[in-house]
Amino acid sequence: MLSWVPSVFKRFGSVRTPRKVVGQAEALLPAVLRLGERTYACTVIGKIDDKTVVNLSRPVLIRQSDPIDIKLETDRTFRRFQLRWKQGLQLSVKPVTTWAAPN
């Protein structure tokens, strides 16, 4: 009848190890975002992958179909990206090609 009592003590009586904190500080990489002939300062959060998040330094009007070129401060050439979503000064992009055409 009281066979469940030990399992309750195991579940709630054990010492818990702290879980990994989600959203730890990631690398902020300074970059330049190019839309057509205009360039804007921005910051890439983390690394460049399929779901790259970019923080803009000022508001920019970007359409879904606009090709976006981003160059990290350490790179020599721009990389071509496509807009996934945009909210406020933060946008998410995915790479279209490895490198963009030179300007």
CATH level-4 homologous superfamily of the domain at 26-95:
predicted glycosyltransferase like domains
Q: Provide mean pLDDT, rounded.
A: 81
Number of helices: 1
- Report how far apart the termini are: 78 Å
Helix content: under 10%
What percentage of amino acids are in beta strands?
35-45%
The H/E string reads: HEEEEEE
Any idea what the CATH architecture of the domain at 26-95 is? Beta Barrel
CATH topology of the domain at 26-95: Thrombin, subunit H
The count of DSSP E runs of length 2 or more, i.e. the number of strands, is 6
Query: Measured on Cα atoms, how large is the radius of gyration?
Result: 22 Å
Q: Please state how the strands of the largest beta sheet are arranged side by side.
A: 1-2-3-6-5-4
The 3D shape can be described as elongated
CATH class category name of the domain at 26-95: Mainly Beta
Specify the biggest β-sheet: 6 strands, antiparallel, barrel
Report on the architecture of this protein.
The structure is a single chain. The chain has 103 residues and is mainly beta. It has a domain of 70 residues: Thrombin, subunit H, CATH 2.40.10. It has a 6-stranded antiparallel β-barrel. The longest helix is centred in the N-terminal third of the chain and has 9 residues.
